Amino acid sequence: MSGSFLFRVMTRFLSHATNRIDAKGRVSVPAAFRAVLQERNIQELYGFQDFVFPAISMGGPELLSRYEKQLDMLDGFSAEAHEMSLLVHGGGIFMKLDPEGRLMVTDFIRAFTGITTDVTFVGRADYFQLWRPEAFQDAQAAARSARLRRDRPV
Amino acid sequence: MSGSFLFRVMTRFLSHATNRIDAKGRVSVPAAFRAVLQERNIQELYGFQDFVFPAISMGGPELLSRYEKQLDMLDGFSAEAHEMSLLVHGGGIFMKLDPEGRLMVTDFIRAFTGITTDVTFVGRADYFQLWRPEAFQDAQAAARSARLRRDRPV
DNA sequence: CGCGTTCCCATTGACGCCCATGTGGTCCCA
DNA sequence: TGGGACCACATGGGCGTCAATGGGAACGCG
Lengths: 154, 154
Fold this sequence. Notes:
Two copies of one chain form a homodimer. By secondary structure, chain A is an alpha+beta fold.
């Protein structure tokens, strides 16, 4: 694991780590994240293009269920419902890991995130995200300064 | 322990001390701090990049819970909630000490603090911080003179 | 029949656990 | 009050384990 800051014993996805994509287009999911997946008994991953950041968000199938439940509460003919389905279904994909805990970095992922050679995995409590490393650095720095501005307004 | 002014018997993290990083990138957490950790029954540390100083703040997992409680009060879909999660989940780290009470000084810590060969541990009551020794000296001196200016306005 | 995908095994390097050492500080006793 | 023994703690390094990575081989689909 290169550039990793992950640690054991966590019931949720936390921290971040960057792994390299190999010649076959595969990348290892950090062991700590795999441990959470196993703990939650997740074998099939649901991923979708994040609504806020240029990243792929990934979690168990219940992540999709959660959004579908929200969809059900909307008027099925409303623009909002159509938009949400477009994102959740049209922007979603099911994936699974190989025996070593690696996943294929497909064009679906590369196109939306700008990922080329390395992937930064970012914990988000109930799910985790796939980022282009530089994009994550920038977004985190932006979030930090935004928070500073809110806390101590000029 | 070099340059230490630590005191025993304390229920809080107090004072400061500077220890050296060894060839493997490890550094001993001052015994007095470890005693507080044990007293509070903390075996796993949660750390994050401080919002105010160029230092890593560390404490028990309840430090994370505190921030998550703030997160829960926000609209889960708001940009602010996503930004905050990016910091406390994606930017936080869980660490634990080795049997001798040392911790790994990862790039995550070095990059943000500028730490290279030595670490200054600084007590902050409920948690403690990791500083680059010179940075701590400067910040403390600055704080001291700022206080002087307030007390005796020119 | 060829290419891409999946499985399996080898390698390497990082990290955790263990034990050793030295040094500074403290306590005790003369 | 000074000296010496003891002890706690910081520090250093050996070694085993495991995760990340790389590449060969079999398999399946077009």
